[in-house]
Amino acid sequence: MNDYERIEKAMAFMVGHAAAQPNLEMVAAHVHLSAFHFQRIFCRYVGISPKRFLQALTLERGKQLMKTSASLLDIAHSLGLSGGSRLYDHFVQLEAVTPGEFKRQGDGVEIVYGVHETPLGRMFVAVTPRGICRMGFVDATSAEALQERLAKEWPLSTLRHNPEATHYAVEALFAKPKEGAAALSLHVTGTNFQIAVWRALLTIPEGQLASYSHIAQSLGTPKSSRAVGNAVGANPIALWIPCHRVIQQSGALGGYRWGLEKKQIVQAWELAVSNSALSPMATS
Fold first, then answer.
1. Could you give the CA distance from residue 11 to residue 177 in angstroms, rounded to a whole number?
2. InterPro entries per the record (predicted)?
3. What distance in Å separates the CA atoms of residue 232 and residue 267, rounded to the nearest whole number?
4. Model's pTM, two decimal places?
5. Host H or E run for residue 136
6. I want to staple 138 with a disulfide (CB 3.0 to 4.6 A). Which of 7, 122, 169, 281 is the partner?
7. Active site amino acids
8. Following CA atoms 14, 17, 19, 21 in sequence, which dihedral angle do they give, to the nearest 10 degrees?
9. Does residue 93 register a pLDDT over 70?
10. CB-neighbour burial class of residue 192 (10 A; exposed 0-12, middle 13-18, buried 19+)
């Protein structure tokens, strides 16, 4: 078991035992490490301490579920899209496949892909010359299945295994963008409504949550919550298009194509990281 696998296993253990508030020694023992060594590698790869992660998973996440009573646009405007989040839409640029490109079915396009270890799980990433076109957790489905789906969406394209060319897509998730860094480009294919929903997801601030109805209202279609849910479920780029930030109006997690445990892990990680950016006690 490598360090990434240990971190993922530890996060899953904390999700499953959050009510019992396991201490550092208990979590470390679950992944067969000393408390000191586990604390060190968790902070190194995740950017926060296990304690911070567990806090976000319990009390802090509960507080977030109670906050989003305003519209999605009001939330975005009140917090300011020019803030420090690395996932705001000023850093992530979403481009849709044009009708002409769709008709050509990827003819003449080379798509590189690779599988990468991350603290949140192994991820499949595919990139066109215009940006990231597919990103998903391998533990929820196989890399081969994700590759086959990609080939069906771009049947005339050339697929080439090149992890060196796709690593940046996951590396950027765990590091703040440098001053003046170019926007991260996403290259997606979908209906006009799906793309509108995915753009709306990019306006949900990091560490915040919104409901399906909030997104429907922000699109000017308040009765389209079910259609919004379908579009959220069809999101082709995990994490960068943050469908994990969408919950039910009641505060329940709702669905997630990569599994509810994974959704809890991602939400807690993101909330803890965003809170730690404001606090000098990030590793406490």
1. 25
2. Homeodomain-like_sf, HTH_AraC, MethylDNA_cys_MeTrfase_AS, MethylDNA_cys_MeTrfase_DNA-bd, MethylDNA_cys_MeTrfase_DNAb, MGMT_N_sf, WH-like_DNA-bd_sf
3. 16
4. 0.80
5. strand 131-137
6. 122
7. 243
8. -60
9. yes
10. exposed
